[in-house]
UniProtKB/TrEMBL annotation:
Protein name: NADP-dependent alcohol dehydrogenase
Ranges for domain Fe-containing alcohol dehydrogenase-like C-terminal: 187-381
Domain Alcohol dehydrogenase iron-type/glycerol dehydrogenase GldA: 9-175
InterPro entries in alphabetical order: ADH_Fe/GldA, ADH_Fe_C, ADH_Fe_CS, BDH-like
Family recorded in the similarity comment: Belongs to the iron-containing alcohol dehydrogenase family.
Native source species: Spirochaeta isovalerica
Gene3D superfamilies xref list: 3.40.50.1970, Dehydroquinate synthase-like - alpha domain (1.20.1090.10)
Length: 385
């Protein structure tokens, strides 16, 4: 196992009716920026619950944060928060609203030049405004991690940053808030959480049996509960399990002391930046090609995954690996998420375009730091070597 530090200060408040806990959680805040998205919270009653809990508090609202939150919107919020002397940001919605809150919190105190520098690895974050969240979409794990992903449509970029200063102080996870999700969003969330696990599990690390089994526990639970959630997302226990799975998929615990990959996400972000495809749907088309191309490097883990998740233990190594990849695709497709690049219906030269963009930034992905432009083209075209 590699050396590691694990720090996670997020207070998770989980369960039915927990939005009312906001009253206590926000007791010492004097001016709150209440941030939300395009209006789902007004239709499903979450907005009313939040406003009720905020009664007597001084707060302002900013709505309209888009899916794949946009830099310009965030910068408008920074101006508003400064003008209004806000001392806390409350995000209510999915990962996009929360990621926007994290970026705004960091940008307010950013002392360098343009806050975009934070997202291109040029800026150091020394301080951020405190923030908290009411999560309504289980998927990203943002509620219990220090990451944020921001898009800048004006220049066609989607970039991420991470800082311990932007951990939420608390995250309220009430599974009942997820009852209003569309089937598409439920399925996206399951696929996103699945791929978060694989980015940390499907590498070359072989000496981490506890982290492996924690990762496999998340996968097996998603495998059991996922199809039920897509069929109907009104069962409290199913939604509670899915919600806790997606938090655990990316709160840092299963990634302790192990190699991590993140190539699927790196390539997927380019597909969203260029073609506006849902985050999870990019992952579902990148992952199969990645696992297939990197099969030698990941062989032991792929075989372990084949056996422990899919019960495949017989046959030649390549046959077992192919079968595990095929079963993964079938699972995603059973949820309604396409897994073939051709299903995206985008430009034929997109793989070359994406490879050139990533190479142009000198970015290298993968636990072996060996995924560059040429490999990216093969991954997107699903070529074995
Ligand atoms: O905007 P509203 O009206 O709220 O609608 C949203 C949005 O249209 C809707 N929604 C959310 N909760 C709902 C609901 N609709 C009905 N009922 C509810 N309870 O769902 C749509 C998608 O929401 P969004 O927040 O964009 O989805 P998600 O949580 O999947 O977040 C995606 C963003 O997170 C980033 C992605 O790249 C993408 O930008 N990620 C963030 C990560 C992190 N911070 O750690 C890791 C991930 O890998 C990911 O990259
Ligand atoms: Zn993701």
């Amino acid at each position: 196992m590699k050396n590691f530090q694990y720090y996670n200060p997020v207070r998770v408040v989980f369960g039915k009716g927990t939005i009312r806990e906001l009253k206590k959680l926000l007791r010492d805040k004097s001016k709150i920026l209440f941030l939300y998205g395009g209006g789902s919270i007004k239709k499903n009653g979450v907005y009313d619950q939040v406003v009720e809990a905020l009664k007597g508090k001084d707060f302002i609202e900013y709505s309209g944060i888009q899916a794949n939150p946009d830099y310009e919107d965030c910068m408008n919020c920074v101006l508003l928060a400064e003008k209004e002397n806000v001392d806390f940001i409350l995000s209510v919605g999915g990962g996009s609203v929360l990621d926007a809150a994290k970026f705004i919190a960091a940008a307010i105190y950013y002392e360098g030049g343009e806050p975009w520098e934070i997202l291109i690895g040029k800026g150091r974050i020394k301080k951020a405004l405190p923030l908290g969240s009411v999560l309504t979409l289980p998927a990203t794990g943002s509620e219990m991690n220090a990451n944020s992903v921001i898009s800048r449509r004006e220049i066609g970029e989607k970039r991420a940053f991470s800082s311990p200063h932007v951990y939420p102080e608390f995250s309220i996870l009430d599974p009942e808030t997820t009852y209003s999700l569309s089937k598409r969003q439920v399925a996206n969330g399951i696929v996103d959480a699945w791929v978060h696990v694989l980015e940390q599990y499907m590498t070359t690390s072989l000496d981490s049996p506890l982290q492996d089994r924690q990762a496999e526990a998340v996968l097996l639970t998603l495998l059991e509960e996922g199809p039920k959630a897509v069929l109907s997302n009104k069962d409290y226990e199913v939604q509670a399990n899915i919600m806790w799975c997606s938090t655990n998929a990316l709160n840092g615990l299963i990634g302790c002391g192990v190699d991590q990959d993140w190539a699927t996400h790196g390539i997927g972000h380019e597909l969203t930046a260029l073609y506006g495809i849902d985050h999870a749907r990019t992952l579902a088309v990148v992952l199969p090609g990645l696992l297939s191309l990197m099969r030698k490097q990941k062989e032991q883990k792929l075989l372990q995954y084949a056996e422990r998740i899919w019960g495949i233990s017989m046959g030649d190594t390549n046959v077992r690996i192919d079968e595990a990849i095929a079963r993964t695709c079938l699972f995603f497709e059973s949820l309604g998420v396409d897994t073939r690049y051709s299903d995206l219906g985008i430009d034929e030269d997109a793989p070359e375009k994406i490879a050139a963009r990533i190479d142009g930034r000198n970015e290298v992905f993968g636990e072996g730091q060996n995924i560059r432009g040429p490999e990216i083209i093969k991954i997107l075209k699903n070529l074995k070597d």
